Amino acid sequence: MAELTGAPERSVVTIGNFDGVHVGHQQLLNAVREHAKRIGGTAVVITFRPHPHFVLRPEVAPNLLNTYEEKLDLLFRYGADVVVEEPFSREFSNVTPDQFVNQVLVGKLDAKVLYLGYDFAFGKERAGSVDTIRRLAEARGIEIDVVPPYKVNGQPVSSSLLRTRLDAGDIPFVNECLGRPFFLRGRVWRGEGRGRTIGIPTANLQTENRKYPKAGVYATRCFWRGKWHNSISNVGYNPTFKGDGSDLPLKIETHLFDFDEDMYGDEITVEFFGFLRAEHRFSGVDALLAQIRTDIDQARALLASLGH
């Protein structure tokens, strides 16, 4: 992202962490984009890096639904013309709402319109509530609009709700809340090669600080070198070979159907479509292979039903 050299033309601004860029965020971004279009202005998103919890409460900092780079891509995909990534620090956390409005919204962006989510709060002890920001913005001639919650199955969509549903393996609900498939992206790293020796080669995905679905087997698709491949993915610890895995990092292993290429070192994207079963320990390789073949048949059927 290039540094701003001046205030964007007729800035229509929104502010937030936007982790996951879910349908609630998309509703907000769409409102900003459409308003900017009406006035010949610029759709501007202010977000933060790192996520404030990593600075203020690292012990409860969430695993992110997207990397910061993925979030930027998604913000632009869903309507932003300009994204301002404010470096978040303890010093920045002490900026008052009045200072933020003066220095950022007025001084840096010359904002004409501000859109906020219904649950927006900013600054030390969340002093910058919607009502506070509304008062400060309107006093400076900035029009302000508050966007109501977007609900799925009666529940307001939020990043924390998505993390909870990922913990339950509820991929269809998560995907509905995202408006797209949940995905993990990263480099393929060289594992122990055990999958290839039993005829089920897997790509081992390397990610950092990402929120994973609960341990188990999933119907997935894998994007590699410009092409999608139907696949099955195991999120877990290989208990058949590794015991209970309690002392091991969680692994993402993806087997691409009808595929036998060297992917080491390449970037792949794995999209998730459905939870098939929990991970558990088998009596031996033969029992494991029999279950994997059943898993593959189930994944093929599920993906075919979704048009993949």
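(the above was protein one; protein two follows)
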Amino acid sequence: MSISETAHKNHEEMWPDYKSRAMQTDPELIELFDNFAFDEVISHGNLDTKTRVMMILGSTIACQAQGEYKMMVNAALNVGVTPVEVKEILYQSVPYVGIAKVVDFIYLTNEIFTERGIALPLEGQSATTPETRFEKGLEVQKAIFGDRIDKMYEESPANQLHIQKYLSANCFGDYYTRQGLDLKTRELLTFSIILSLGGCEPQLKGHVQGNLNVGNDKQVLLSTVTQLLPYVGYPRTLNAIRCINEVIPE
């Protein structure tokens, strides 16, 4: 068995001249994985290289896979993802993964940026103020989810209404409104992160509909799930496909 020409080419695009230590110690596993992830899987779907790598990058944060994340940050920069986009992927993960699970990835990213001569801090991307964050966040929420947001406010018990307000002002006002990534990319990234967390299927179904509403159709979602499969495994992949099919039946 050997690594296919296609797998080698795709691997080289992401990590030129990379010498795998694991190839020396676990050659059979690397051959199996590389032929699957970088040939068979990449050959399926309609995601371009940059989008594919960005979604995998978000997934590795949710999976708490620091080693793979470091690999993917370098891959992302090698295939044209900008430093601002890398940081925005990190920031977008905070309201879904939690800062306790993201902070180490911020430090890892800063180390890689410094090694590559990327000056920090990067240019700010915030687009709201404390006075406008709720209004702007609610506007983005409704752009993605429509009238469902009004219904969520109407049906929320009084002692839980603050969570709805946090979603509008913080999750969407502080993060979704930021520059650096467009809305379609942010929503697809959120889908990738929630998928990779596992156990969040109700929220995943909500963001299947959200993606559909902003123009990411079923084929895009299935392509994204397929590209994440080698990194998250079959159970989370199959759960995600079930969610997609429940929201967007064949």
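Reviewer note on protein two: The mean pLDDT is 97.
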